[in-house]
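pinging the channel bc i need a second pair of eyes. not urgent but kinda urgent?? the chain im working w is below, pasted from the shared doc
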Amino acid sequence: MTTELIPINSNYDYAIKRAINVLQSGGLFVFPTDTVYGLGCVYNNENAVRRIYELKGREFNKPLAAYFSSVNMAEKYIEKQGNNFYDICRKYLPGALTIVVTKNEIVPDYVTSSTNTLGIRIPDSKFIIDLIENLGVPFVGTSANISNFPSAISAEQARGIFGNRIELILEDDQSISGLESTVMSIVGNQYQILRQGAVIIV
């Protein structure tokens, strides 16, 4: 396999088209966010999800996050939420925040390590939002790294980590802040910070 690298800024439309092709065919891609580079696949392909874990050396009890283009899209994949959820979404999304909520039966257990919760990401990235809108379903992912090592903050770093073991790398180093997303849980309409990152919740 030879990994294709596409600079987004000079190949925007082609990058979206190629990423959709890779995802729909069960492939893996590295993508830029508003934090660090991620490694992802379409949400409902178990073989692709398992490849992510194997490539990273990631423990299977650590769930992946799901990437959505909007809160409205995310609502189709999660249980009905209370006011706290929508207040947080209005204040911080799109942005560098992962919100963990109760999922519904549409989301496969292999995405969430057989837990009943799902991490929602709506990054502050026009490209990622446009990609998901055109794809029509969420993709799932995690940081582009080997588990317990630093996350890639450039496309070249990602290439160095994964070599030619993935199908596609989308390059936009300018969008990367280098700080991981903040992770918070909203279950039972109560919230808890699970990881402090780029967003300070006040």
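so The chain has a mean pLDDT of 96. and The chain has six helices and ten strands. — does that match what u expected or am i reading it wrong
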